[in-house]
Amino acid sequence: MDVGPSVQDTLALVYRLQTIDSEMAHITQEIETSGEALRKKEENLEGLAKLMESEKNEILRLGRDRRDREEELRTNEHIISENKKKNKELKHSREIQAYLAEMEFRRDEVERLQEEILRIMETQESLEKALKERESELAIRREETEALRATSEEENAGRLERIRGLEGEKAALTEQFPVPLFQQYSRLRQSHRNGLVVSRILNGTCEVCRMTLPPRTLTEVKKRQKIVPCLHCQRWLFMEEIPSRS
Ligand SMILES: [Zn+2]
Fold first, then answer.
1. 166-171 contacts: CB < 8 A, separation 24 or more?
2. How remote is the CA of residue 65 from the centroid of ligand 1, in Å?
3. Pairing state between β 236-238 and 205-206
4. How far apart are CA 199 and CA 24, in angstroms?
5. Chain-centre distance for alpha carbon 220
6. DSSP letter, residue 208
7. How far apart are the C-alpha atoms of 19 and 28, rounded to whole Å?
8. Which residue from 206, 242, 197, 239 is spatially nearest to 17, judged by alpha carbons?
9. 178: pLDDT confidence band, cut at 50, 70 and 90?
10. Residues 57, 50: contact at Cβ < 8 Å?
């Protein structure tokens, strides 16, 4: 495309614009990444709090279970002691047999309930211990999350400040652009990978695709009469001024 006589000057502007855009995109990415990290911490915190909630409920449920079994245990012990009182009044062998069977059953029940209560108590104890550990873990994680939030906020304030500065620089720069060139740049920036439109020539190779450029292409670029795209990656080739000349 025709961009006037100073193709390289224009490309230098486009290259500068591209640098600004890339930096802004990079900073925006940093903001997103830091937001993502914070969200992850918050989710972990939430997950831990939920886990603790369900463990608390489990401890309560175990407490109810234990009370039920203790009640049952008392009932059985009461029946045993009542039966013992009636024991002496028994005369017939059938009554005695029934008594013995009942007593055996009740004693088994007592044993079973005692074992169950013991098991529940052990489970309660280990859950309570785990819960206590989680409580201190939660406190640590909460502190970490708050620290990260504070750091992120501070860093993001700096990042936004930098973006504002770059936006100002970009606005001043685009004013010097021919409108069609700016439009074309914006369009290519969307379609090219990494948003790179311009590529510097470094030691005869294209900086973006790293392919060696044919001498004919280099000659054309040096003529500075039109925009020459890289044969491989289609980026506009730009030859930077050699600093010693200025
Ligand atoms: Zn290339």
1. 166/20, 166/23, 166/24, 166/27, 167/24, 169/20, 170/17, 170/20, 170/21, 170/24
2. 74
3. unpaired
4. 18
5. 50
6. T
7. 14
8. 197
9. confident
10. no
Question: What are the beta bridge partners of residue 202?
Answer: 205
Residue type, 17: L
Give residue 239 CA to ligand 1 midpoint distance, Å: 13
Strand partners, 212: 205
User: Residue 178 has what DSSP assignment?
Assistant: -
For residue 229, give the DSSP letter: B
CA of 213 to the centre of ligand 1 (A): 8
Q: Quote the tokens at residue 60.
A: 């309560």
* 207 DSSP assignment: T
| Cα–Cα distance measured from residue 162 to residue 27, given in angstroms and rounded to the nearest whole number | 8
3-state secondary structure of 239: coil
Q: Which amino acid is at 165?
A: G
* 146 CB-side CA count, 13 A: 6
* Average pLDDT of the chain to the nearest whole number: 92
Helices (H), 87-178: 93-174
Distance from the alpha carbon of residue 21 to the mean position of ligand 1, in angstroms: 19
**CATH architecture of the domain formed by 26-171:** Orthogonal Bundle (1.10)
- What pLDDT is recorded for position 194? 86
State in Å: Cα 33 to ligand 1 middle: 30
205 alpha carbon – ligand 1 mean position (Å): 8
Query: What's the whole-model pTM score?
Result: 0.75
Q: pLDDT tens digits, residue range 187-227?
A: 999 998 889 999 999 999 999 999 999 999 999 998 888 89
Task: Map out the domains of the chain as residue ranges.
Answer: 26-171, 192-245
Question: How far apart (Å, rounded) are the C-alpha atoms in residues 126 and 233?
Answer: 64
> What is the per-residue pLDDT for 3?
46
Cα 233 to ligand 1 centroid, rounded to whole Å: 4
